[in-house]
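User: Fold this; tokens only.

Assistant: Input:
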Amino acid sequence: MASYELASQFTEDAFAKEDLICERSSCAAKIRKGDPCFYIATIVIGQRGRFVCAACHRHYQGKAATSMRPTAQRPNAHVNASNAQVNAQVIRQNINAAWRPALTQQPPRVVATSASYSRAGPDIVVPSSWAQVGYSANHAQYGAERERWAKQPYAVPPAETISLEITAVREGGNRRKGARGIPFGNICEGKKDVDARIDAPGLIALSLDTVLPKIQAFAAGFPWHQDQFIVRDGGWVDLSTHPPRQPYFYSQCMHAARKGLRAMTFKSKQFLLYVVVPAAQWEDYEAWLEKAEEERFSVHSRPELLFAPSVTRSVHSSGHSSVLAATGAQADSFTISSAEAPSEETPSEAPSDAPSEAPSDVPSEAPVKRRFHREIASVPSSPPLKKVVSAKVAFRSPDREQLREVLQSGGTADIDVQQMLTVQHENIDFFPILTCPLSVILEGPEIHTAFCMNTESSYGGRLTVQTSTNDMLGVGGFKTAHPGFLTLSSAPETLLGSRPHQKVAVKRPFYKKYPPGSSKNPMNFTIGRYTITDELPKLFREANVLYWARTLLTFSYEYIDHCVSNSSEPPPFHIPRLRFVEAGLALSHDHTQPGQHKSKSLTMPRAVYLVEELITDEFLKYIHNMDCNPMLDPYKAGYEIAAFLACTQHIQYAKTGGLAFISDYQGGCEVLSDPQVLTHPSVNDGKDMFGDGNIERAVSTFEKAHHCNDYCKWSGFKLECYNIAEPETETQMDS
């Protein structure tokens, strides 16, 4: 009977190189360094296997569903191996299918060809020089190559990228002054995040795909010959002369990491590319353009043709409309055709069978020129419109006293220098705070458990802040809010800052600075700012609290929608739809100072801001951080929202098993801001979690302190009522 071993995707060492934990969920035994360690592959394509201990390895060997492969010869080993006919095409298809995890269908099954095989697989002639036991010098790079090829099929887009500026030019220019081409049509396009290892043919294809539509739109109707265009770099080198499959710009991006070191590092750059139109083809274009002009003005030289309908029809049929469009002629809605508009000398009561040609006794040349100017401005593709008589324009002299006041106000206007000096412009990296459902967090806690400032998911942009204390939106216990504008580059449409100059609220932490030797008067202090090393952790905690508050509020609405959809009757009240502000952290970099090296200044973060969506409606405090009931009095504006938010606290507390809920609800009637997440003492375990506002005893005493309102008491939510609110404090819900 042949012996078997478990199938593995790659060759692995059979002994643990360090202390490990058995990855079988029901075992989790410790595998000490040097003990047997076995790698078990999965049947799911693209999913990694697991390392297990010797006991679990024997367990898998005994399972009937475990895929096995034979490792020993069968008894008929003396059969000639030439009888085995290996189908190389089938093997190649199976290998290609196994490396495509996106395919929904499984790769084709391998069918045994004959029972006369002498071995488990095909007999391969091994050179005698290879017949040695163990690893040799030929295996020195095996580990590195295995890791490289294993990662390559599922590699993310390259992190080493460059930017391109692609311009359309024509051959010409003064060579003595360094001109190598003449731009035309103001055609200049930019490309970013281009793979730095792109070769010359790839750059040629990318440049033509980017610029060719612009060139065709510049001269619509002219037959450009794309195959004659030449793509050159900033040094005027023809890219077509460079060999393929060799990175073109990559070597120019490699620089020494530090002076005196041989180690090289990659630095992204921007490169120039020119799509050059040959001189001969440009001459053809100018000749085509000149011919079009001549055809246009051939009608100009014969004014009598302007009054003949047959000429107008022939012009339509000859395709001159496209020529006029190419030369920039604009359509004129007031074009007059003699076929419809009568002559100035011809009375409107003329019979219908009168000849359409202009009469021979047209004496005045000025009307002819005026009519020609109107007609030649555009060749209409539809019947011309009749001349529209302009309406009478009314004129009224301004009121003298009102004009005097306006002149006084405009003449004495002056600039507010202090306000202009307090406007601060920052080049930033923006890290958005996204909404992550609780189910996603539980599935991947190592990725989504907290807000993350990942540079790969950041967006570059510009932030404008009005830092004047007179223009502040407000001052809190430890943050100031300032008006500002945010503009991000290449941001999704749903993200904050995707619209240019979007109004935002910019928040920064502060501490109170009192004058030396004076008492700490609450009204006599100045605002002090923290250093970046203290400011960043404070705002990161604020962002993380907002991240979890968005998650818990989304979790509440998921439960509410579930209960409403499964209830036999709709709820007898309106359910408000609220959300937390779109926000993110903006990391500002230092500006270049006079006499300072540019590269050093751009790498130093200078400040960090919490940038939030601006709330334009009335700002209300719905629930205090120390309480779990509405702060507003009954029947006041906003009380219904406050009661609903108290119900969301009840839902969060009940459905998380009393571990967490949102408090400190505040904001507008649709958008909320500055929340606080409260957790049970068993969650905190003596650690500082979710900032200083996390009051543990508020969670411990929730069932005693919370008063259930009509939202909580609705049978569709199936919530346990802790305390019934007093009748005078209940709100009348609208059905």
